[in-house]
Structures are given as structure tokens and as C-alpha cells.
Amino acid sequence: VQLQASGGGLVQSGGSLRLSCAASGGTFRLYAVGWFRQAPGKEREFLAGINWIGSSTNYADSVKGRFTISRDSVKNTLVLQMNNLRPEDTAVYYCNAQRGNLNYWGQGTQVTVSS
């Protein structure tokens, strides 16, 4: 599976961004998928995940209530809607797909939130 993330950019505090991840080359609909981010000098952290059928989601406490993950297994896309962004949300955002011992990452998209 190849993953291509897009939608990052510069936004003011309190603003919104919508990240997309386009999947190709595999049976995307069978994978659990999620979003992670990595800020400079910090480890990559989990943000949000959704199971393969799209019936269950989970979120990190830091983004719960502000970010929403969704998937379209017909269009092979994963979306992260980010609202009420804060300067501490500044990071490179990565999409991820997992199935068993298979684990794939997108190339990352930069999100910068100015105060």
C-alpha cells in the first residue's frame, strides 16, 4: 500500500485544516488506519485511528473533541478534520495503515499553527 498525505499548511490559532491521505496499490479497505504527528525534537505520537470497517474510532486526549478521523474505503481515502488548532499542534502529520504485521506510512505533511 502506498500512502500520499496532503492538506497541510499554515493556519492561525483557532483555525481549521483538513488533511487527506490517498491510498493505492493494495486492499486499503482491509487495513486499520490512523494519523500520527511528529514535532521537532519529539517522538512520533498517535493522534487518531479508525478500524478497517470504519465502525470504531479512537483519539489521543490531546486532540479529542477537536479532530475527527474518517475514511472512504470506496475512494481509498483517509481524512483528518482538524478544528480549533493550537500552536502546539505544529508538526509533520503522517497517515498510517496497518494489517497484521504490515505497516505503511505516508510521506508526511507539514502543519504550522501560528499564535
Indicate the topology.
Blueprint: E1 2-6, E2 9-12, E3 17-24, E4 32-38, E5 45-50, E6 57-59, E7 67-72, E8 77-82, E9 91-99, E10 102-105, E11 109-114
Parallel strand pairs: 2-11
Antiparallel strand pairs: 1-3, 3-8, 4-5, 4-9, 5-6, 7-8, 9-10, 9-11
Would you kindly provide a written description of the structure presented here, covering whatever features stand out?
Helix content is 0%, strand content 56%. The radius of gyration is 13 Å and the shape is globular. The protein has no helices and eleven strands. It has strands at residues 2-6, 9-12, 17-24, 32-38, 45-50, 57-59, 67-72, 77-82, 91-99, 102-105, 109-114. The strands form two sheets. Strands 2, 4, 5, 6, 9, 10 and 11 form a seven-stranded mixed beta sheet that branches. A four-stranded antiparallel beta sheet has the order 1-3-8-7, with no helix packed on it. The chain has 115 residues and is mainly β.
